[in-house]
Amino acid sequence: MELDAKCPTGPIETRWDRHQFSLKLVNPANKRKYTILVVGTGLAGGSAAASLAELGYNVKCFCFQDSPRRAHSIAAQGGINAAKNYHNDGDSVYRLFYDTVKGGDFRARESNVYRLAQISLNIIDQCVAQGVPFAREYSGYLDNRSFGGAQVSRTFYARGQTGQQLLLGAYQALERQIGLGAVEMHPRTEMLDLIVIDGHARGIVTRNLMTGKIESHLGDAVVLGTGGYGNVYYLSTNAKGSNATAIWRAYKRGALFGNPCFTQIHPTCIPVSGDYQSKLTLMSESLRNDGRVWVPAKKDDMRPASQIPEAERDYYLERRYPSFGNLVPRDVASRNAKTVCDEGRGVGETKLAVYLDFRDAIERLGKHTIKERYGNLFDMYERIAGEDPYQSPMRIYPAIHYTMGGLWVDYNLMSTIPGLYVIGEANFSDHGANRLGASALMQGLADGYFVLPNTINDYVASTKLAKVDASNASVRDAEEQVVKTTNKLLHNKGTRSVDSFHRELGKLMWEYCGMSRTAEGLKLALSQIPGLREQYWRDVKVLGSGEELNQSLERAGRVADFFELAELMCLDALERSESCGGHFREEYQTPEGEAARDDEHYSYAAAWEFRGVGNQPELHKEPLTFEYVHPAQRSYK
Amino acid sequence: MKIILHIWRQRNAEDKGRMAHYEVPNVNEHMSFLEMLDVLNEDLIARDEEPVAFDHDCREGICGMCGSMVNGVAHGPKPGTTLCQLHMRFFKDGDELYLEPWRARAFPIVKDLVVDRSAFDRIMAAGGFISVATGSAPDGNAILVPKEAADRSMDAAACIGCGACVAMCPNASASLFMAAKISHLGLLPQGQPERYERAVAMVAQANQELFGACTNIGECEAVCPKEIKLEVIARMNRDFLMAKWTGRGTEEEA
User: Fold this and answer.
1) Chain B environment of A161 (Cβ under 8 Å)
2) Which residues in chain B are closer than 8 Å to A138, comparing Cβ atoms?
3) How far does B160 lie from chain A, in Å, by closest CA?
4) Same domain assignment for residues B107 and B128
5) Same domain membership, residue B131 and residue B195
6) Is the CB of residue A440 less than 8 Å from the CB of residue A266?
């Protein structure tokens, strides 16, 4: 298969403009004749559904939560980047583009990233107009802060609830369209298969989670904004319901999966406290602006933090990276935390934590200022950890947070199945091997508000689709498969709960495909996952019926997909014999212990094609070329 | 520690429902409340009993999906805290807890502790927005917002739509929920053009959904996990009355 990314050529500054002009348009009066199915209502899906309806398309929108306002975008805390240069500190579209390509460790497309940086400007404007209550200066102008890995102040924020406020903006725009009758909303409805007819994505099979009814929805194009797959690790900062089922079933219908092994570990999360742990909670990395990260200089130092004198503390990030200090990008901060804990210098009961200390900032700025900046985060920490971070330092440890990989899409955000678009975290496109802080919100909204509503017109205008209805063989086949899988899970009569299997898979993945990876470990994981998956299908126990709300059944289907996805992630991680961004292979590091990229052999996006469960998928490569930002070793020294 | 639970079990909307008695031994003080329910559910599955259905998603207090009555108090005894953020260290060995779903005519029970809150979405669809189509916005700094207005707007915008306010209100009123949105948007310059119409449309929809009226009891404020202040309701009432006096808003009787 020849992968055509359809990237425009010529001067990068005008690529998106010229591309937009080359796209076909749909007559406004004709748009209502086309039905677009949008799955997921986070920043990407919600903004896309609203914007498509505003344009006049007939939109059907789906989410598994009880309301479109609950999608996990809501939990993003820190902020959203935009190259406004409101602070006259040297920012520009080009600098945001440069930072993002470099931050992604040269594994993203330049064309996509430049467009993202351009559109960042429109996003802020749009959100302000919607009434997103961004932080303001006393003058009434928008406030900014600098954020993980950036040396300019380009991050816009709404206290520690930026994701919530941006999502509510998109949700309100969506509700407005629902009220106008332009969007038909299906909450508590889960997509369980993609319907492909004559090579085109034409619909989805869903299960109504309240009644158990399995039905098909048909249309002219399908948009997946279903988020990332971090929950393959069981413990992550994702919501409990976040899952890969929509993108995974699309993969099994022929959409290629891009860079599955690129996962992001967030450095500032509240550490695991016990076996019952159900999820990990992230503390915004904006905390690193004022907090200092340290561990005791000596191994096995069990004294409380307050009794460890200054000279016996190792502020290891400030020591190793004098110019970026505590603000190094996420992958670098995470790996260093693991290194010091592996050395036996971790803190707390489990010794799998490092300190994030505000003592000096409180002395310098006063408790009032710190409270104003981070009050809600400090409260959250105290609620969960039971310690007051104004008095003693926070204990933090890295956790799975975001997945840069996802379904492969071209410049138009269309997957390898014509008519199937993938937006936001669900696609693989803009962050390369590592995502910078405050960039996920930017990408989700760029895709949903501004990119997809433009590019989808071209497909709709230039594709002649036959009329299809529910009697079509492909529709019936997809429905039958969903019914079969559901019944199999319900009548399995096994002995173990879904969660017990999920935890086991998660441990395996964290151990061998987590913060650092080796060929040996990945091979071991690849040898164990198929057996565990077979055991799952033999021995999983799902109680209750399929005709009503059954949360175990919902989870069972998602975990079945995680088992298959886990295998692909390990395979991709093994195949990529280099270290880049969040993918750290221990065999490939510089003498200083930093990630060593191999541009000669691995400057490509890996796109995997499904070949049947248990069979080796086929690897396709999309070569990456860099005309503007020349690959160099990322240095934050 | 050991916790004794009485949980409302109801198969579906038609089922009558009843309280069921469970015990969870070995509860760890660092567990969250929902993790304690996970442990119970794993135990129920092992005994071939159907697990307790409860809504939850982010488990970090922001999505608004979780919530139940704990000994008659929405989200349990700790102020300003969602059920998922309530930790077992606030309870002691042998505590007996009664868990019930939100009870309100506008929130029909789906199963066990799960209720249908789609009435909230319909209130939002009636007017909880600023009508701005994608692409029509001016530069962000072209609209100046005094810091105090932005801060107070954000205070109201923090609402997570969990429904605790309705569950706790003896009238099952949705006033705090609606007023939070009306204040969030009404405090900003961007929200002014539709300010009065918004209040009228949202209140009319709430009446249709059979939420009760506000009688200034204040239970909503006491249990709101985001500590939304009762003063937002005064703001809503002012906008609503102003709309009626000046003839703005829809013709619908609200």
Assistant:
1) 62, 154, 158
2) 147
3) 9
4) no
5) yes
6) no
Per-residue pLDDT of A223-278, as tens digits, reads 999 999 999 999 999 999 999 999 999 999 999 999 999 999 999 999 998 899 99
Residues A389 and A286 in one domain: yes
3-class SS of residue A587: coil
Show the DSSP H helices in A239-325 as ranges: 245-252, 316-320
The structural domain count of chain B equals: 2
Residue among A129, A142, A178 minimizing CB distance to B141: A142
> Which of A43, A57, A63, A69 has the highest number of chain B CBs within 10 A, making it the mutation to test binding with B?
A69
Position B199 in a domain: yes
Q: What is the ipTM of this complex?
A: 0.97
* CA A125 to the chain's CA centroid: 24
CB A184 within 8 A of CB A60: yes
Residue B216 burial by CB count (10 A; 0-12/13-18/19+): exposed, middle or buried?
Answer: exposed
Q: Rounded to whole angstroms, how far apart are CA atoms A356 and A394?
A: 5
Q: Is the pLDDT of residue A128 over 90?
A: yes
Per-residue three-class SS string for A32-99: HHCEEEEECCCHHHHHHHHHHHHHCCEEEEECCCCCHHHCHHHHCCCCEECCCCCCCCCCCHHHHHHH
Q: Indicate left, alpha or beta for A493 from its phi (over 0: left) and psi (-120 to 50: alpha).
A: left
Classify residue A282 by burial, with Cβ atoms within 10 Å: 0-12, 13-18, 19+.
buried
**Model pTM above 0.90:** yes
Nearest to B141 by CA among A127, A293, A314, A372: A127
The CATH number covering residue A321 comes to 3.90.700.10
Contact B121 A240 (CB under 8 A): no
A67/B contact by beta carbon, under 8 A? yes
Q: Which of B48, B157, B184 sits opposite A543 (nearest CB)?
A: B48
Mutate: best of B118, B129, B131, B227, partner A, most A CBs <10 A: B129
CA dihedral for B138, B141, B143, B149, sign (positive or negative): positive
- Do residues A46 and A69 lie in contact, with contact meaning Cβ atoms separated by under 8 Å? no
pLDDT category at A594 given cuts 50, 70, 90 is confident
Range of the domain at A352: 266-399
pLDDT, mean over chain A: 96
CB of B194 less than 8 A from some CB of A:
no
Residues of chain B short of pLDDT 70, as ranges, are 250-254
Q: What Å distances lie between residue B42 and A131, A244, B38, B77, B164, CA to CA? A: 44, 23, 6, 25, 27
Tokens of B156: 């109201």
Task: Output the CA–CA distances (angstroms, integers) from residue A460 to A34, A396, A451, A544, in the order listed.
Answer: 8, 48, 15, 43
Residue of B63, B34, B67 lying closest to B167 (CA atoms): B67
* A22 in a structural domain: no
Q: Residues A486, A572: one domain?
A: yes
Q: In angstroms, what separates the C-alpha of B122 from chain A's closest C-alpha? A: 8
Contact call for B134 and A141, based on CB within 8 A: no
Take residue A358 and report the two structure tokens written for it: 């505000």
Query: Does residue A470 carry a pLDDT above 90?
Result: yes
The whole-angstrom separation of Cα A67 and Cα A50 is 15
pLDDT at A636: 75
Contact (CB, 8 A) for A136 and B147: yes
- Do B133 and B241 have their domain in common? yes
Kindly state whether A281 is in contact with chain B, defined as any CB-CB distance less than 8 angstroms.
Answer: yes
Same domain, B38 and B60: yes
Euclidean distance between CA atoms A77 and A378, whole angstroms: 13
Domain that holds residue B175: 117-246
State the total domains in chain A.
2
